[in-house]
Amino acid sequence: MQLQKKADMECVVQGIIETQHVEALEILLQGLCGVQRERLRIHEICLKNGPNLGLVASEVRLLCDLEQTEPSWTVRHIGGAMRGAGAEQISVLVRTMVESKVSKNVLRMFYTLGYKLDHELLRVGFSFQFNRGAQITVTVSSVNKMLKLHATDEAVPVTPGIQMVEVTAPASAENYTEVAAAVSSFCEYLAPLLHLSKPGVSTGVVPTAAAAAASLMSDGGGTTL
């Protein structure tokens, strides 16, 4: 199995937005980022280890990019979040993360190692990647569940009418403070449409979303900040 490792930490925030306002969010992101969006269709398989691999639970996610002519696979292991007074004072979650490109036989290998399928999802949407004080990626996607094993063509929405928004940026032990500040600063521009917070903190949709979306749709998002 071929491995190509990247990043050891990341800063991340998440939020939700009603599907009816996604087009307005895309207009806003286009104006802020100045780059074209990339289409997103990711088959995500979550595996957890069996009891024979030790007492510490382990979870890995296999991501298959279905937008590629030849689907490519990535394995991602998300570790623990940074703790302590410093972590509480910043508005983004800083966590360890290892991600590697792998060959297509990776699923068979993890099954051989004793991992078992926990769940699988299909994420469909778009993303923007750009540099704004840090290398930031914004992903907007609907989250869908499979009714049959690996049946991506039959996936149905987990939360109809709602899409997930995630903002991430790679970081290191030396620069995570600066990266977290860059992510927080960028998220302020999105505040009229959605609230972004640390994963696991439910904030719901924002009451100003409808008015902000209507304004963006009427002027076409022509302002670049």
In short:
One of its GO terms (biological process) is regulation of transcription by RNA polymerase II. The chain has 225 residues and is α+β, with helices and mostly antiparallel strands.
In words, what does this structure look like?
- It is found in: Nucleus.
- This is Mediator of RNA polymerase II transcription subunit 18 isoform X3.
- The structure is a single chain.
- This protein has five helices and ten strands; from the N terminus they run ββαβββαβαββββαα.
- The protein has 225 residues and is of the alpha+beta class.
- The protein has one domain: Hypothetical Protein Pfu-838710-001, CATH 2.40.320.10.
- Strands 2-6-5-4-3-7-8-10 form an eight-stranded antiparallel barrel.
- The termini are far apart.
Fold blueprint:
Elements: E1 4-6, E2 9-18, H1 22-33, E3 38-48, E4 59-65, E5 72-81, H2 85-88, E6 93-102, H3 106-112, E7 116-131, E8 135-145, E9 156-157, E10 162-171, H4 176-190, H5 209-219
Helix pairs in contact: 1-5
User: Which residues sit in consecutive blocks of at least 5 with pLDDT less than 50?
Assistant: none
Strand order of the largest sheet: 2-6-5-4-3-7-8-10
Q: What helical percentage do the residues reach?
A: 10-25%
Largest β sheet strand count, sense and barrel closure: 8 strands, antiparallel, barrel
Q: Would you tell me the overall average pLDDT?
A: 88
For the record, the CATH class is Mainly Beta
Rounded to the nearest angstrom, the radius of gyration is: 18 Å
**Class based on secondary structure composition and strand pairing:** alpha+beta
The proportion of residues in beta strands is 35-45%
Task: Output the helix-strand order.
Answer: EEHEEEHEHEEEEHH
Q: Number of helix segments? A: 5
CATH topology: Hypothetical Protein Pfu-838710-001
CATH superfamily: Hypothetical Protein Pfu-838710-001
InterPro entries: Mediator_Med18 (IPR019095)
Family: Belongs to the Mediator complex subunit 18 family.
Keywords: Nucleus, Transcription, Transcription regulation
GO molecular function: transcription coregulator activity
